[in-house]
Design brief:
The chain is α/β, with parallel strands linked by helices. The protein is 63% helix and 10% strand. It has helices spanning 2-10, 15-52, 59-102, 115-128, 130-157, 159-207, 209-214, 218-270, 277-289, 294-317, 378-385, 408-413, 429-434, 442-451, 455-460, 478-491, 508-521, 534-537, 557-562, 564-570; strands at residues 338-345, 355-362, 367-371, 393-398, 401-402, 415-419, 496-500, 526-530, 542-547, 550-555. α6 packs across α10. The radius of gyration is 35 Å and the shape is elongated.
Length: 574
């Protein structure tokens, strides 16, 4: 219930329209009950008048019936229009809200999660929340208000009848739903988790299909998916059986209540204590009154499923962000200087630190390289500078200000990044370039691509900058993708350039082309280079050697060459 209240607070901007939808549903249900009740009395009265030959005014009840029919039809249309419109708007806003809560968690809190599971939460779990308003809030609102109304109306005609009706409504509207919740609680949660696991397995199989085929593991993946599917079907079958049983019990309760009402009313009509025209009217009143509570069976059938999906969303949304945004805004950076003082950092507090007492200072405009074996902690320094993770101890400053003083947006405005694994979106070349600078004009795009060595390649394409790239830039070679990342970095006016293995995996000729573009990119910027490439070190003002999370040596390129023992020990690849 705490989570449901949280969801209700998120829908606060739409509460007036949600209330209007509930009122329209209430009016529709009451109009339908009144329509059946008045119709029962009218038909019975007309029959009696026909048998006895007594004249009666049938214009007024006929007008009332037509009026109630119009109210029911118009109310139903208006209720469907309002409730569904609000539901779609709220779900779209909820997805945006959830995405915004996820963004500050990346990549620190999301690195251990499947992208398919995140997608499942954004789509399937949020989609299930449409039942919260349509099948939970509205039916409960109608039942709470309309239920007492119909019982009071019955009480005016017969106290015993109102007691019978109240017992029947409570049994169908409270006892039966309570049994449904108890029966479905575990199965609903397992069904939601199994559904998410099945989507993850299917997406993993599709994304890794090439490797599965090469290593002849496709059948194992198919078997795993089939097992998850069978598990999900078993849980859904159990939920469906509960639903079918609930519908049967609900129908039984309605019939028993109607029979009890007839058992009470018929002797009264026979004895003359009650007008015979009231028999049909009150019987139909009892029958129609169950429209108030019958939807509650579906409401409480869906509630555990909605609760499980909501829990999956909120447990992610409530994760603490990687960094706390400053209240007073960001200081104005003067230059691109960087200072790390006694930094210690671990990705997992249960494991040892990957950086140990790291201290280094980079002046504005300096070109500094950080060199070491894989796993030594080089990329971790870049992650800390970008604010993706927080250091356990120590201080990092940019332009003399601690990075905690900058907002996330202002901090990352200071950086341009070219990495080994730059992600390219399934969009046009132009769209990918303008991610770095949405205000870039065509002249700026042309200059960036010319510097990155992409002009000839783009000119050869039929659609030029509007050429569509496949998923992750599948239409580009490794060198072309790297040069596109360099063009992006050129378009972003960050004072500090981080180069994380920018030439890794490229052949010699492509590497030379990329290096030429990188050296052009480095002009007038502070550069932090992470590399194994000795040809790039010659352009560096200072080099830090890192091993096992510690700085074990530093100096210029020439100084390291002279210190042959240190150079050969720490830079064996050279």
């Amino acid at each position: 219930m705490k989570n449901f209240y949280r969801l209700l607070t998120l829908s606060r901007p739409h509460l007036r329209w949600m209330l209007l939808g509930g009122i329209l549903a209430l009016i529709t249900v009451l109009a339908n009950i009144a329509l059946l009740t008045v119709s029962g009395w009218f038909i019975a009265s007309m029959a009696v008048a026909g048998v006895t030959g007594v004249m009666m005014n049938y214009f007024t009840p006929a007008g009332i019936i037509r009026f109630l029919a119009i109210i029911r039809t118009g109310g139903r249309y208006a209720e469907r229009y309002v409730t569904h419109d609000i539901t779609f708007k709220f779900l779209s806003e909820l997805r945006v809200w959830f995405y915004r809560r996820l963004e500050p968690l990346a990549p620190a809190h999301l690195q251990g999660m499947h992208s398919s599971d995140l997608l499942s939460r954004l789509q399937a779990d949020v989609g299930r929340l449409d039942d919260f308003y349509l099948r939970i809030l509205v039916p409960v609102f109608v039942a709470v208000i309309a239920g007492p109304i119909v019982v009071i109306v019955a009480w005016f005609y017969s106290t015993d009848l109102s007691i019978i009706l109240m017992i029947g409504l409570l049994a169908a509207g409270m006892v039966l739903p309570a049994w449904i919740i108890q029966s479905n609680r575990n199965y609903a949660e397992q069904s939601v988790k199994a559904s998410a696991a099945l989507r993850t397995s299917i997406i993993d199989g599709l994304q890794g299909m090439r490797e599965l085929i090469v290593y002849q593991a496709a059948q194992a993946q198919i078997d795993k998916t089939a097992q998850l599917n069978q598990f999900l079907l078993a849980k859904q079958d159990r939920l469906n059986k509960t639903s079918a049983s609930a519908q049967g019990v609900s129908l039984l309760l309605i019939n028993l209540t109607v029979w009890a009402a007839l058992w009470l009313l018929i002797p009264q009509v026979v004895s003359g204590d009650r007008a015979n025209t009231e028999l049909a009217m009150l019987t139909l009143l009892v029958l129609a009154s169950f429209e108030v509570v019958v939807p509650l069976a579906l409401t409480f059938e869906q509630m555990p499923i909605v609760a499980a999906s909501l829990s999956r969303i909120l447990c992610m949304a409530d994760m603490p962000p990687t960094r706390i945004e400053p209240v007073d805004g960001s200081p104005e950076p003067i230059d691109g200087s960087i200072c790390l003082e006694q930094i210690q950092f671990s990705y997992n507090l249960n494991e040892g630190p990957v950086l140990k007492d790291i201290s280094l200072e980079i002046k504005s405009g300096d070109h500094v390289a950080i060199v070491g074996a894989s796993g030594a902690g080089k990329s971790s320094i870049a992650h800390l500078l970008l604010g993706f993770w927080q250091a356990d101890t120590g201080c990092i400053t940019i332009a003399g200000h601690a990075i905690e003083c900058y907002t996330e947006s202002d901090l990352r405005k200071q950086f341009s990044v070219v990495s080994q694994h730059s992600y390219l979106f399934s969009a046009t070349i132009r769209d990918n370039l303008m991610l770095a600078n949405p205000d870039a004009d065509q002249a700026m795009l042309d200059r960036a691509c010319a510097t990155a060595g992409l002009t000839d390649f783009i000119n050869e394409l039929v659609d030029g900058y509007d050429t569509w790239l496949g998923q992750s830039g599948v239409g580009l070679s490794g060198g072309q993708a790297r040069r596109l990342a360099i063009a992006q970095a050129l378009l972003k006016p960050g004072q500090i350039l981080i180069l994380d293995e920018p030439t890794e995996g490229l052949d010699f000729k492509t590497e030379q082309q990329v290096l030429q573009a990188i050296f052009e990119l480095m002009k007038d910027r502070t550069v932090v280079l992470i590399t194994h490439n000795p040809r790039m070190l010659k352009k560096m003002d200072w080099i830090y050697l890192i091993e096992d999370g510690r700085i074990v040596g530093q100096g210029s390129h020439q100084q390291l060459i002279k210190a042959d023992a240190l150079y050969s020990n720490q830079l064996r690849l050279f």
